[in-house]
Amino acid sequence: MKEFELINRYFKGRGITRRDVDLGIGDDCALVSVPENCQLAVTTDTLVSGVHFFADIPPRALGHRVLAVNLSDLAAMGAEPTWVSLALTLPDVDLPWLEAFTDGLHEIAEYYNVQIIGGDTTQGPLTITVCAKGIIPKGKALTRGGAKVGDWIFVTGPLGDAALAIEARKRGIALTPENKKALEQRFFYPTPRVAAGQVLRGMATAAIDISDGLVADIGHVLRQSRVNAVIHADKVPVSQALKDTLPEAERWPYVLAYGDDYELLFTVPDAQKSALQAKLKQYGVDAACIGQILPGEGKLEVLLRGQKLALPAKGYEHFTA
Ligand code: ADP
Ligand code: MG
């Protein structure tokens, strides 16, 4: 199958059609209409075989995941996702693989009402890049720089599941079949907190999605907001599967330092705390208060039942030994 047949079969004419797409797949560029009172939010994330996923990851999960991680970035800014483009580098044309990959991709795109408006298809080592676009009312984006002293720190869901799924595979940690399934589901099919991100608009002061680990990602907020924070490790939500598998003393690297769960971390002033929690509940999000913003210049302290907890190693960084 040639490049153009492939594009026609798996991308053109598949997926949803949005009214704000003036020209979709098939020309040199796509054309979209951004509403007048909105800003365009743009983000890109790449998944590289052997770096971000095992070569034997189910292709359907890969299609889901590559879009999910990009939608998570849009969610962290409070944007409504609208359009995506896809750069696909494939070692060869493997039809069953492509079928499953594009099924996963189109499924999540449809769920979030996102249209695939273009891309590029090339041959080479398996690499998938998505550029996701969203819209946001002018001036309403949530950044990493807005946290204020006294704000409460929240996360939208349990942390550490994806980490445990990965490490269990790498190091042969024993999992019950149910726990293995639950943990792998969180790694393969992360749920971007798209609705929650939009709820946070106008209520939260800062937000970030946890892709590289809680400690590393909150570090960005603290430095960009020029504040300190205290986190209570025992308040960070964890799943039953993780609790079943790891005694408390062994959990912290997974929960605090690993990432890949794509929950949102956000800060909220005391006056908005209850209202925001209640509003998130309406969207099925049970946000947990895990700490507070303090005066300072970017330092984090993690306590476990009031005692200082040594910070696990930093989050994932490329180009480090
Ligand atoms: P050009 O050579 O002008 O860059 P291409 O021949 O690469 O255009 O692509 C033809 C059309 O197909 C373009 O509209 C492009 O956006 C789209 N396209 C190519 N690859 C993909 C893909 N993997 N997913 C979605 N659209 C794609
Ligand atoms: Mg061209």
From TrEMBL:
InterPro entries reported in the protein's UniProt record: PurM-like_C_dom, PurM-like_C_sf, PurM-like_N, PurM-like_N_sf, ThiL-like
UniProt keyword annotations, A-Z: ATP-binding, Kinase, Magnesium, Metal-binding, Nucleotide-binding, Thiamine biosynthesis, Transferase
CDD domains: ThiL
Keyword Nucleotide-binding: yes
Organism of origin: Pseudoalteromonas fenneropenaei
Binding site for Mg(2+) 5: 212
UniProt gene name: thiL
Listed GO MF terms: thiamine-phosphate kinase activity
Domain PurM-like C-terminal: 148-297
NCBIfam families referenced in this protein's UniProt entry, alphabetically: thiL (TIGR01379)
This protein's record includes keyword Kinase: yes
Record domain PurM-like N-terminal: where: 26-136
Binding site for substrate: 52, 260, 316
Database matches in SUPFAM superfamilies: PurM C-terminal domain-like, PurM N-terminal domain-like
Catalytic activity, reaction form: thiamine phosphate + ATP = thiamine diphosphate + ADP
Protein family according to the UniProt entry: Belongs to the thiamine-monophosphate kinase family.
EC number from the UniProt entry: 2.7.4.16
Name this protein carries in UniProt: Thiamine-monophosphate kinase
Amino acids binding Mg(2+) 4: 28, 43, 73
